[in-house]
Fold these 2 entries.
Entry 1:
Amino acid sequence: MKLDILHELNAERAARRPVILVTDTESGEQRLVKAKDFAKDPLRPELDKQLRMGKSASVEAGGKKLFLNVYAPTAKLVIIGAVHISQALAPLARSLGYDVTVVDPRTAFASPERFPDIPLIAEWPDTALPPLNVDAYTAFVAVTHDPKIDDPALLHAFERNCFYIGALGSRKTHAKRADRLRAQGARESDIARIHAPIGLAIGAVSPSEIAVAIMAEITAVLRLPPKEKEEAA
Amino acid sequence: MLDRDEDILKAAEDWQKAGRGVALATVVETWGSAPRPAGSSLVINDEGTFLGSVSGGCVEGAVVTEAMDVIQSGKPKMLEFGVADETAWNVGLSCGGTIRVFVEKVG
């Protein structure tokens, strides 16, 4: 690997931008393709597929044996609300490989006793969220049921283009939330991105089951191609 | 997405900049029950120091030896390890899988 390619690869990864390194395993020739350049690449379908799966693979194209090495950022999960559901959600998400952070300004909820080993920020979203570098590889979940906490957090998630945004509450609760967000300047297209009621409809009752429903929905959004995603929703 | 090999690639860059000979070995194909998925990598320097893994420890020794050749010659190599490949290699994967490992020089 040429040093300039390695240097660029490390820089892209540090910036949490996905890239795929394409290696001709016979000649040793290599090129680095940034996700933003996939659309104009001859290998587009293969690149899109491997990035979505988060899997590296060997493929044959144009009579060449190519290895596509996928470097995608570690997914993050930001949970707004140190509530009972979050106590089940945080460790489940971590076991799935997510970097998890829980945010809740209410110190009675955001206590290390309730969340052993999980990074906790006992601050309001306005203070807690900017340093977290919420990005397109972040799933964002608001579960406090308190508009003072959930609403500003959701506005931040819109701004940062999170790949998944979910909020707890019935359809009725969500309709009221949509009105409040609209009044604060949110666009219809942003509001439409919120998964609410949150989680796949699996009849979840207990906090642990709701956590499973939420992570199943996040996984579907992360991994399924766009068409199948619509069908699952 | 959920893998963390970044320290390995950072080390490869740092070692190279510090003037060491460096090789990178990457699993490019797997068959059967392979211990590490495609994309897993091992970085090796000319002192024999290595970081990362391409198997559960079964074949790293052989990969490091080959990497020394690659650092010398500058030519990439494809290695194959598995139960069916006893003639070429004395090491194999106890799990019964087969892996192909691409070894290249860095720099």
Entry 2:
Amino acid sequence: MSDMNTQMADRYKNNFLKEIEEQAEMGEWVKMCMQCGLCSGSCPTNFHTGWDHPPQEIFMLIRAGKREEVLNAQGMYMCTSCYNCYVRCPRKVPVTHVMHGIAEYAYRIGRAPKNQPSMHLSKTFWTNATKNGRVNEVQLTQSLYFKDGIGAGIKKAMEMQSVALGLVKAGRLNLLEAVGIAHKCKDVKGIHAMLAKAEELEAKNKAAKAGTTGKE
Amino acid sequence: MTSVVATNQTILVVGGGISGMTAALEAAETGKQVVLVEKNPYLGGRTVQLYRYFPKMCHPTCGLEINLRRLKANPRIQVLTMAEVTGITGDKGAYNISVKLKPRYVNENCTACGECGKAVKTEIDDAFNYNLGKIKAAYLPSSMAFPQRYVIDASIVGGACGAAAKAACKYGAVDLDMQEETVTLNAGAIVWATGWQPYDASKIVYYGYGRFKNVISNVEFERLADPHGPTGGKILRPSDGKEARNVAFIQCAGSRDENHLRHCSRFCCMGSLKQTHYVQEAFGDAGKSTIYYIDIRAIDRFEDFYQKVKANPNVNFVKSKVARITEDKDGNPVCNGVNVEGYKRYAQAHDLVVLALGMEPSVKGVQIPAEVMSDSSGFIMADPANAGIFGAGCATNALDVNRAVQSATAAALRAIQVVNKVARAEA
């Protein structure tokens, strides 16, 4: 995957803005930013230590061609999708989507940090939800609790015990999901076929963008 | 009944602010008959509500004085106050206009002696001072109001206060039987100069205007600084009447924002730069101003003014659009955001926050009772298909006083051309 990184760096040489515009989803909005700072000021995670570069700084770094700084940044993984920035942006820049677009691009070219928690959640959730067309809540929480090892997982599970029991009593949680007996959507095959087609189209699209295949 | 003398060679000017007055005077001074219609009981519009002008820091009273003198000396202008245009029919050269006149309950016998005001107990919101205080229900709108006649608020007519006002008047000027009336008149051309209003600050939810007493608007700050204002010219904050020595100005409050006003309102940067002078003058070196901005747009030839304010060590510039205002335990408004120069988070408490509100047309294009073309903000645009109605001043664009006057003169010239054609056809 790091080949992909070098390949892209070579292809766009000193034009990181163009790279983001063409490769990252919603990247074409980066040039619309007028650096007012309303997005960063409105961000609920801006007190977090991991928040090294706020959104409008990432926009400015992209425009200044600071490829390494942006791809090493943590800011875009911190997004909780609260959409405060998106609804307030005076230029109607979809800041939330741009952040996710950059994070996804960094992941695609192998530059995302290993074991990044929000990325771990995204991947786990996706695998879990697409398997049966519905989320298996027990397995999802398990895989998140035990992410940092068995000890930490058990500790967390004990902490949340009363919440889980409450959910079971209210009929909102089925413990049989733990062994894979989970609720499914009506047409699992249909969902899988649809997702496979979507994946195929997206792969084709991305390959075309990356200039590897599908180029006329 | 009010009688209006108007023909197809008359020019109707709608709006008696600085633009409308200018258009009316320019046209009348070339010999045209003009009817000037104003919604308020006085002329001068938002200009008379300013404390000072930029860039010379002179008082609007001076320029208005000249205009009022020109007006009084000119027999060709008929002024209708408390009047609103409700309908326009016809076409270029032959418009038929209906105007609704609200009763003032005071006739031209009034000498502005003030006895009715003393007799009346009821108080109403002081609209001239943006409701920052209360006034008696029989009032003179401002010290230099034209016409210099009292107004009796409709709320006291028929009550004991109304009767007291009538009894107090030695000149028989109070007429409580006045009724609302509608007059119709002809005109060959119309100048639409209904001006602007500040953007509704409560729509910018994260600034807490209306929730926090010490978050006020730029137009309200003008009234606080004015010796004729509700505080007698002392810059006192609304919550506790404490001197506001540390004032924050938030630029682009509503302007340049797709969620609010799409346009740059042009005057607000200069407005805030001007208002830092008020703080400096009131408190000297103890008066501190902070301007939070995206970028300073000192339009036209005003860069020099900006540089001078920038050189003042008591004025601090922060390049950031404030994201949120909160209030600390002492009732001080706190500006929260991220500074673009260094990308550092800040939470800065001030005594008072002034929102540099943008300008929107007070009558939007679609609300005008005639076919006019307007842009997405409601400002009137030039339309070749509609050759008899001309926008002037802030009804056409976000302008400062200087540019509004230029725009009004241009509109007057266009209107004059229309009535000249009518005159030739009728001769």
